[in-house]
Amino acid sequence: MARNAELGEFLRSRRARLRPEDVGVPSYGSRRRVPGLRREELAQLAGVSVAYYIRLEQGTAEGVSAEVLDAVSRALRLDGDEHAHLHRLAHPPRRPRAAGPPRLRAPLQHLLDSITHAPAYVVGHYTNVVAWNRLTAAVFVDLANVPADERTWSHQIHLNDDYRARLGDNWPAVARRNVAYLRFRSGQDPDDPRLRALIGTLRERSPEFGRMWSAHHVTDLTHGEARIDHPDVGRLVLPFETLHLPGDPDLSRLMLYAAEPGSTSEEALRKLAETSAHLSSADLADRETPSRSGD
């Protein structure tokens, strides 16, 4: 999608979700032809001219100041991630991109291998899984059996029916979170061809992804909870944390999961760890090959 269209669609989607009564705008009981606030009402709340705001919704952000964007953000009641996304759409950042596949330092793989009682993996900037430990394969998906160009969580969530079944009634929440994160990433680097190709593939192959993408939700992935209906050990509830890797620009973050001490999930992980311990280092060798899933 062209950058100016992205800005305009984002502003319209955020304006559409606001009702006049949410922001103290009198509606006088009149029939409204558009959902949410009118452009005139939003412009007044932001303290800018209607013509100026219309230019923004048309994607014309050249010369717009950070102060004006802040005012529009306040009027739209954007949260922190949305606020940052608006600024990035108006003034796109420039992020250097690696020429080849992401490089995994040996100590990172050794760290993953040392975590034997919880899932842990490293992802790149396209939700591509670069390296993982045994419990990641046992709990989520055995990525060694997935083609390298589909070894992304985005592919698994939206296009893998087996993994969708494992997510159970938690699939809609996981899917929306993934789409919102891809929106977040697209704001960070809107011209990234690998990211645009990934999003294009998902929109083409999954109508549900397309509908979620059109909602323009924006959220970074920092922490949360995974719920898995595992065929062997039942329901797993696993809080997770994300750790950024500032020394590895080709990589995005390290994902770590841990069950609550004394919970049935902790006992289930212990059982899975025991049954997966027979895997040899040769079985895991393919998992050390960096993924090029964003291509």
What does this structure look like?
- This protein is of the alpha+beta class and 295 residues long.
- The chain folds into 2 domains: 3-90, lambda repressor-like DNA-binding domains (434 Repressor (Amino-terminal Domain), Orthogonal Bundle); 106-288, Beta-Lactamase, CATH 3.30.450.
- The protein has 14 helices and 5 strands.
- The chain has a 5-stranded antiparallel beta sheet, sandwiched between helices.
- A hairpin with a 4-residue loop joins strand 1 (120-124) and strand 2.
- Helix 2 (39-46) packs across helix 3 (50-57), helix 4 (66-76) crosses helix 5 and helix 11 crosses helix 12.
- It is elongated.
- Residues 284-295 have low confidence and may be disordered.
Helix/strand class: alpha+beta
Low-confidence parts, pLDDT < 50 over ≥5 residues?
A: 284-295
Sheet with most strands: 5 strands, antiparallel
Amount of beta strand: 5-15%
Structural domain count = 2
Helix count from the secondary structure assignment: 14
Task: Determine the fraction of residues in helical runs and give it as a percent range.
Answer: 40-55%
C-alpha-based Rg, rounded = 22 Å
Give the strand order of the largest sheet, numbering strands 1, 2, ... along the chain: 2-1-5-4-3
| Apparent shape | elongated
> Do you know the CATH topology of the largest domain?
Beta-Lactamase
CATH-scheme architecture of the largest domain? 2-Layer Sandwich
Tell me the span between the first and last alpha carbons. Answer: 17 Å
What CATH first level of the largest domain would be assigned?
A: Alpha Beta
Number of beta-strand segments: 5
Secondary-structure element order, N to C = HHHHHHEEHHHHHHEEEHH
Average pLDDT metric: 88
Organism: Actinomadura livida
Protein name: Helix-turn-helix transcriptional regulator
Region (Disordered): 275-295
InterPro entries: Cro/C1-type_HTH (IPR001387), Lambda_DNA-bd_dom_sf (IPR010982), MLTR_LBD (IPR041413)
